[in-house]
Amino acid sequence: MKVFLTILTLTINLNSFATEWLTYYVYFETEYSQGTWTRTDILEQSKYKYLTVEAYEDLFGSEEAQLINKLLSRLKEKKPDLYNWTYNLNVQSDTVVITTKEQVKNIETIKNEITATLTFNNFKAVTFNFGDNSETLTINDLTVPYFDLISKQTIPTTDRTKIQEPMNQNQTVVPTKTKNPLTTWLIISIIFNFGLVGLLMIRKSKK
Hints:
By secondary structure, the protein is α+β, with helices and mostly antiparallel strands. Helices cover 33% and strands 25% of the residues.
């Protein structure tokens, strides 16, 4: 029983350290709708297509592949027909390598969406090994405009829907770490450990 309780508390500790809530961003291509946005003239070059962004929040472990697969699965949720292909994933330092032997439709759109999504979530580049072709892209290689991600505290009231040209973007937005609810379990496990040690010491002193 003592061994079981010790293993249980150690497991709770490990889980508390290995998981955390993360806010991340997914970029997907859409078409411009008439509105009051500024600088819409830059959309003429992209035939009024641009990359918009949505924020999500999920619980992740410490492996980078888990985050990458989640980002790609979010894109597939948005466009299931476009991402109906399988891939192999590899991470080399700060570059994500995606390999597939399948025929991929709308390659330019896919490359734009994946490159923007991964680079805005703290990766430097994406290598696409599609069939016999290999290409490494960064945020500067996007072929359509995209929305800037700006801190809520610094967003001017007249500039919240501003579209920026790809070549003007220099800042990478790091996924935001939010409060981990498993911290409570960590505190509970520490208290439990102290209680268990105290109980063992009391029993030993009685002998």
